[in-house]
Write a structure and sequence with these properties.
The protein is mainly alpha-helical and 585 residues long. The protein contains 18 helices and two strands. Bound molecules: heme-as and copper (II) ion. It comes from Haloterrigena salina JCM 13891.
């Protein structure tokens, strides 16, 4: 009998942790996804399951569970897989691996309980404050959560830091045994991503530990909202690449093989990941083009850096599509575009990832529009932005992860996938559902439909789409959301039923794509992680020192705060005039 060579046969102990991380991620996906349906139907006024007063509880849970919990649990799983597989050795000590996983779980539970307490009529008082966290996934001041929310976040982030330590330790151990070898590409991708994760999470850790947590505990009276916002976005842009890099990794090392060929260029892939390490952080201010209190010049620098950061994604589009074409031609594909037909469209792993890539091409365009300082004024805080990130994190990342799960779950459990046709239907449904939903969101944003509100219609104000009607746009969003929910249910069903399957001998080997141009063609300097990290830190210092200094100078380290100013949501004219008179000399 042929020997089976699945991941679980090579690394049984690691496979258990990875499996646990995947299931944590799927649980978050299930709850977060369902809440997505609830709010889409609510906003479009199709069916209302909740009171509008609970809208922000739902929105916070949806955002946190999907953008933070689902994504990061899944990626720590595949990063652990990538490091151990490409170094051909296990982690140094699986007890350490379990401990960071446990820390992330405890953090998630704390955050989850605090958010969901928002549904209770009388939330229990702990530490002198009611349990609550209706602060959305961006959680910057002036919104304030219960201290448990921040403590939970800290535990989760520290858990992810220790995961990074685990990957580095494994690599150091391997380097000791293989002193003269190049870092294998998947490990290289994990390490560069981890390095910028350390750089960017420094900002959010500072924001939580020095400002938000002491403020929610009542140790300090106020904070400077612009400072905590800026620290959040210092982290908040780079985090999107923390989600994206594992998807890119799969496109580089799996898609070429699934297509029947090899990766076009290992050196180019290394350059791409180095560029992400350098440029992911010093541009967070592109989320703050409309924030008063930051000078235009700093916003312009953020815009310039953002435009440079398009480069690694454009290189990725080229390299990955070239590799797919190479694969298709190996399989007999011909012609300028005819080769597309020779791709393995019946394979859900391939098709899911390819469709995710295709949607990301559109997402890249909406990202470029967001990034233009002047055009951003049109789309900021509208549903356009929501359309943008459902194509990026909601498809490029989420669909790639779901497609990857069809390959990974058999690898880490030794069980064959329950149903491949259902899986193929599932990835197609995601693509179709997202086409309806995100297209309508982008369109409605263009005529000013706001994001983050339960009642987007504003009584007495008529939206006028350039084409079609508001009702038609709402119908498309609702239809898209329903299709996405069906797709999600099929995904979870497949995962659950697979776990009831018996062990199978028909699991593909745990290998990934070879390369046409390998690491020997890449200049040695690309592997100099210390050098790139140092440059990345210098760039951050250049981009952030002056804006942060001026924010602190104008608004105070701990603010004048908003408390003293008695801001109400819609102040009457007299109050506005009075405030203007007070602040104007
Ligand atoms: Fe973004 C807002 C700019 C990428 C996520 N973004 C957001 C928010 C989220 C988010 C969550 O400059 C909202 C945050 C909030 O709550 O307020 N974004 C960009 C730019 C890029 C970009 C320039 N975003 C992402 C990614 C995300 C993400 C990736 C998550 C994973 N974004 C912005 C800006 C804002 C913003 C502003 C603020 C807006 C505002 O006003 O609030 C770029 O990185 C995009 C580059 C991408 C490309 C595409 C390359 C194409 C590829 C496809 C290859 C095809 C294949 C398949 C493999 C240039 C790689 C081929 C298939 C065949 C069949 C052949
Ligand atoms: Cu961004």
């Amino acid at each position: 009998m042929a020997m089976r060579n699945a991941y679980v046969d090579q690394f049984p102990a690691e496979a258990k942790v990875i499996k646990a991380a995947f299931w944590s991620s799927f649980l978050a996906l299930a709850i977060g996804g369902l809440l997505g349906l609830v709010q889409a139907l609510h906003r479009t006024d199709v069916v209302r399951f909740i009171d509008s007063a609970d809208y922000y509880t739902v929105l916070t849970a949806h955002g946190v569970l999907l953008a933070i919990t689902f994504t990061i649990f899944f990626l720590v799983g595949i990063f652990t897989w990538a490091v151990t597989t490409s170094l051909e050795r296990g982690v140094v000590d699986t007890r350490f691996t379990w401990s960071w996983y446990a820390m992330m779980v405890v953090g998630t539970v704390l955050v989850g309980v605090t958010i969901f307490a928002g549904f209770l009529e009388d939330a229990p008082e702990i530490l002198g404050a009611p349990l609550n966290a209706d602060v959305l996934f961006t959680f910057y001041a002036p919104l304030q959560a219960h201290p448990f929310f921040y403590v939970g976040l800290v535990l989760f982030v520290v858990g992810s830091w220790l995961a990074g330590v685990d990957w580095f330790r494994t690599w150091w151990a391997w380097r000791g045994e293989n002193p003269d070898e190049r870092i294998p590409l998947p490990t290289f991708m994990v390490l560069t991503t981890t390095l910028f994760w350390y750089i960017c999470t420094f900002g959010v850790a500072l924001s939580i530990l020095v400002f938000l947590l002491p403020w929610s505990l009542g140790i300090v009276d106020s904070v400077n909202p612009l400072l905590t916002r800026t620290l959040f976005w210092y982290f908040g842009h780079a985090v999107v690449y923390f989600w994206l890099m594992p998807a890119y990794m799969m496109w580089y090392i799996m898609l070429p093989k699934l297509s029947g060929g090899k990766l076009f260029s290992d050196p180019l892939a290394r350059v791409v990941f180095v560029l992400f390490l350098l440029l992911s952080t010093p541009l967070g201010i592109h989320h703050q083009y409309l924030d008063p209190g930051i000078a235009e010049g700093y916003k312009f620098i953020a815009m310039t850096n953002t435009m440079f950061l398009l480069l690694p994604s454009l290189l990725t589009a080229f390299t990955v599509v070239a590799s797919m074409e190479h694969g298709a031609r190996q399989r007999g594909g011909e012609g300028y575009l005819g080769w597309l037909r020779a791709l393995p469209w019946r394979d859900p792993v391939f098709t899911g990832m390819a469709l995710a890539g295709l949607m990301f091409a559109a997402a890249g365009f909406s990202g470029m529009i967001n990034a233009g300082m002047n055009i951003n004024y049109l789309v900021h805080n509208t549903w356009w932005v929501v359309g943008h990130f459902h194509l990026t994190v909601g498809t490029a990342v989420a669909l790639t992860f779901m497609a990857a799960a069809y390959w990974f779950i058999p690898q880490v459990t030794g069980k064959a996938l329950w149903n491949r046709s259902v899986a193929l239907g599932q990835v197609l449904l995601w693509f179709i559902g997202m086409t309806f939903m995100s297209n309508a969101m982008h369109r409605s944003g263009l005529f000013g439909m706001p994001r983050r509100t339960a009642e987007p219609q504003y009584s007495g104000f008529e939206f006028e789409p350039a084409a079609g009607t508001v009702g038609e746009i709402n119908a498309q969003v609702a239809l898209g959301a329903v299709i996405l929910t069906v797709s999600l249910a099929l995904f979870l069903l497949n995962m659950v039923l697979t776990s009831f399957n018996g062990s199978s001998d028909a699991i593909p080997d745990n290998t990934y794509a070879g390369t046409l141009s390998g690491p020997e063609d890449a200049p040695e300097i690309l592997d100099n992680l210390k050098l790139w990290t140092a440059i990345a830190i210098v760039l951050v210092i250049f981009a952030y020192t002056l804006p942060v200094a001026s924010i602190v100078e104008n608004g105070g380290l701990f603010g004048p705060g908003i408390e003293g100013q008695q801001l109400t949501l819609v102040p009457d004219t007299a109050t506005v005039l009075e405030t203007v008179r007070e602040v104007m000399p």
